[in-house]
Amino acid sequence: MTVALSGKEIASKLEQQFPGSIVESNENSLVVKSESLPELASLLKTAPDLDFDYLTAITAVDYYDYFEAVYQLTSIKHNHSLVVKTRCYGRDNPTLPSVVSLWRGADFQEREIYDLMGIRFDGHPNMKPIILWEGFQGHPLRKDYL
Amino acid sequence: MAIANLGLNTLGRLETLPPDWPGGFWWHWLFFTVVIIAFVLLLVMGFIWIERRGMGRMQARLGPNRAGPFGLLQPVADAIKVLIKEDIVPTNADKIVYWLAPVIAFAPALMIFAVVPFQDGALLADLNIGILYVVAISSVSTVGVFMAGWGSSNKYSLLGAMRNVASVVSYEIPVLLSIVGVVLIAGSLSLNQIVLAQDIPFILLQPLGFLIFFVGGCAEIHRSPFDLVEADSEIVAGFHIEYSGMKFAWFYLAEYAEALAISAIITTLFLGGWRGPLLPPFLWFLIKVFAVFFVMVWTRTTLPRVRIDQLMALAWKFLLPLALINLIITGIQVLTWPVALPWVMIPVNFAIMAILVLLWSKLFKLGGGRVEV
Amino acid sequence: MALKTEPFVLNIGPVHPSTHGVFRMRAILDGEVIVDMEPIFGYLHRGIEKLAEERTYTGVIPLTDRLDYLAAMSNNLAYVLAVEKLAGIPVPERAEYLRVIMAELQRIASHLIAVGAFLNDCGAFFTPFLYMFREREKIVDLFEMVSGQRLLYNYMRVGGLSHDIPSEFLPALDKFVRQMPGFIDEYDQLLAKNEILLARSKGVGILPRELAINISASGPVLRASGVKWDIRKVDPYSIYDRFEFEIPTGSVGDAYDRYWVKVQEMRQSLRIIKQAMGQLPPGEVKSQVSHLLHPPVGEAYGHIEAPKGELGFYLVSDNSIAPYRCHIRAPSLMNLTALREMMIGWKIADAIIIFGSIDITMGEVDR
Question: How many domains does chain A have?
Fold first, then answer.
């Protein structure tokens, strides 16, 4: 059974290493600041007891005040999973740091989020629209698109 | 001298037709030209039917069965459909090359039949360099295919044409060497004489040569498992992508006419041509040609296709050494075997073939092929 | 004396007999060798995620059919599992067993097409494809008995199934389960040691183990690379922990291993179906759920082992009748991430084989 790790415990662990990076946490997930996402992700991937080497999915949700990116992480070795979220504010040109250098599975998913939601990912080698055709105006999955 | 020409040519022989049979040179030429053209066109239709119906039955489905009884008129329906189709020419195509390609690809297949005997002496021209003429002419169709690939101004067709040139050139040599084995035993290059010399069909005396010729022949006419020239699933019909209408019909006909030609050559060289006990010789010829083609349809339905570098590796590293060894052994046998014991040679040759094929297949493996980029 | 040639650009697709849908590969070739490759897709994008925000929770189920249209039952199952997790709805026992039977039958059907299409790409002119389809016809007939549809079933509902199976289903299923292992053995015998198939697919398109984990591959692609990761075993959903079955794993991660894993998985699916059929309890097949479902505010991620890989639905609800956000984690999209690495250095013929062995469906990739 894949154990869903408690957000609170991981948050307290991460808070020791990187103070001030956690925004909030509860049983199911933890929310981190977008600037500290790369370092936290790197720690989550390389720490021997966490060892999250498998990025299951990245989702972006449009809550009208902010965008939230949800990262579902899994560890194949220890068979546990974690949900990490991060937020970015502002509707024109929101940006988030990219995790492609850690998990290559984020490649197509981040391009899709850019295409459909409009969130740019810094550090992505190929930030081009992937699903919609060239010349498409707008970002369809946003709540104010149609 | 020929081992098998022991003067036992008494079974099923009608009298030999003289070379100017119905009444002079020009009547002979006219008669046989008409016979050859009719023969090729009719049998190509028959082959198309055998292939589609046979392949369908082997694939657990019915083949075409609507057009005529058992679908026998299906090729006619195909021909009519293809004749009334719109003739689309790509804008960037090299017009002259594009127009000439089907003709050059089809004509050699028809010309091969000038030297294939339907009965003793019943052929358009009994050239005494018969088989050499066949080999020379059959290579000309490659030029037609390459013209088609180039003139279509399409990258896919160019790839197909390149593959074709590479494969035909590679397979000429083993095919030629296996033919030389037959020629050594028969003692003549003329196809009529080769048939006359086959008291024991040469497939029994030259089993290795037969295998090499069959595999090489399938590769030359780019039929499965070597049909990568027009591989449906990779380069979408290869060199004849941009052809439609009657020009495509020429290519389609050319493919089956070449299959017919190779079947006819195999029948003549290895299976004894028109020779057989009870039925008229023409019928025996047809039966044998159909049998060979059926085996070709069988292999097409069953086997996946090889890749181009594996194809060439098969020709140069597997078939060519075997063909050379076959030639050497045949030469030794022709020189030294006692003339009175031809039947014993059969099991000896089969044993040699089995040993060589097994040995070579252990030494030679297809596969690999990643290029460092 | 090397010949100086220039690389040229060739578009493989989107209209191509072997790209398994509308998929475009922009390959830069040097002769026949692929020097660089860029996958371009999006030709089948229908905006399912956006459409899902405008439909009720039950109304999204027909949309999920159209994702991986060759494995519609599995898509339905993933979605209703996610909704049940979100809203905390229990499922009756009989429905769970029937869901397992349907999902495993669907896995066999999908793998039959995958193997058949792979061999078709190898060049065996439709013969294995048609043999596999002959078996698939029997499965499709079973599904037609149950749901009236041959391809897009729309059978699962939130809280169970839409209706119970008819009385002729179980005898027909029994007959199928008894005949099928013989057919799989027949295909194995014809294909497993075929020299040409081995030459075309052994060692071709190797996906190393570390790369497979890094690109979030899942399903047969991941297992062929040597990672024993199957959602049915590591995170059992529904009642999969009551059945005994094995996870076939490859060793090298080449095209042949991916083919082999699929054939073995078909055998294991038959095992599961036999066990489920033996334990099927009577009862009702749907728990009482209102038509306009109002799940509590929250989010849930439900995933299953679909035939192509790990199919997951991430649902966010704000207590209204429609999902606030429905994100689909498509296995085919993830498996495509390393396509470029797998293809460089091989020839066009191998490119088609590598692509065919990954086994994607464009409905999922583009959504």
Answer: 1
Interchain CB distance below 8 Å, C216 and A70: no
How many domains, chain C?
1
161-180 in chain B: CB under 8 A from chain C:
none
Listed in sequence order, the DSSP H helices in B84-206 are: 95-111, 130-138, 140-151, 155-186, 191-196, 202-205
The model's pLDDT over B180-227, given as tens digits with 9 standing for 90+, comes to: 988 888 888 888 888 888 888 888 888 888 999 999 988 888 886 777
Across the interface, of C126, C196, C344, the residue whose CB is closest to B303 is C196
pLDDT of residue B236: 64
Flag whether A143 is in a domain. Answer: no
Which residues have CB under 8 Å from C55's CB, separation 6+? Answer: C63, C322
Q: Are B239 and B98 in contact (CB under 8 A)?
A: no
DSSP conformation letters of B48-81: HHHHHHHHHHHTTS----SSSGGGTTHHHHHHHH
For residue C2, tell me if it sits in a domain. Answer: no
Q: How far apart are CA B139 and CA A122, in angstroms?
A: 60
| pLDDT band per the 50, 70, 90 thresholds, residue B373 | low
Residue C1 — very low, low, confident or very high, per pLDDT cuts 50/70/90?
Answer: low
Residue of C nearest to A74 (CA): C216
User: CB distance B60–C131 less than 8 Å?
Assistant: yes
Alpha carbon of B162: minimum distance to chain C alpha carbons (Å): 9
Give C274→chain B minimum CA distance, Å: 28
Q: What is the CATH number of the domain that holds A67?
A: 3.30.460.80
Question: Which of B58, B232, B308 is the closest to C17 by Cβ?
Answer: B232
CB pairs under 8 A between A and C: 82
Query: CA torsion, points B195, B200, B206, B209, in degrees to nearest 10?
Result: 30
Please check whether residue A88 touches C, CB under 8 A.
no
Would C130 be classed as within a structural domain?
yes
C3 located within any domain = no
Is C186 in the B-facing interface, judged by CB distances under 8 Å?
no
Which domain range does residue A70 map to? 3-89
The owner of tokens 């015998």 is C189
Tell me the β-bridge partners of A81.
A4, A74
Contact status of C50 with chain A (Cβ, < 8 Å): yes
Interchain contact B/C (3 or more Cβ pairs less than 8 Å): yes
Interface test with B, best of C29, C33, C112, C127 (most B CBs within 10 A): C127
C265: containing domain? 8-366
Choose the closest CB to C127 out of B59, B235, B308: B59
Give the domain CATH number at C133: 1.10.645.10
Using the Cβ of A117 and the Cβ atoms of chain C, whether some distance falls under 8 Å is answered with no
Q: Is residue A27 part of a domain?
A: yes
In sequence order, the 6+-apart residues with CB closer than 8 A to the CB of B194 are: B130, B131, B182, B183, B186, B188, B202, B268, B269, B273
The answer to whether the predicted template modeling score (pTM) of the entire model surpasses 0.90 is no
Structural tokens at position B18: 């003289």
Query: How is residue B291 annotated by DSSP?
Result: H
Contacts of C344 in chain B (CB under 8 A): 373
Within a domain: residue A18?
yes
Q: Which residues of B touch C35 (CB under 8 A)?
A: 373
Is residue B136 classed exposed, middle or buried when 0-12, 13-18 and 19+ CB atoms within 10 A define those classes?
Answer: exposed
**B309:C124 CB<8 A:** no
Q: Which residues of B touch C126 (CB under 8 A)?
A: 59
Using 50, 70 and 90 to split pLDDT, how confident is the model at C104? very high
In a domain, A34, yes or no: yes
Q: Convert the pLDDT of each residue in C296-328 to its tens digit.
A: 888 888 889 999 989 999 999 888 888 899 999
The per-residue pLDDT for range C50-62, each reduced to its tens digit, is 888 888 888 889 9
What confidence tens digit (pLDDT) does each residue in B32-80 have?
888 889 989 899 998 999 988 888 888 888 888 888 888 888 888 888 8
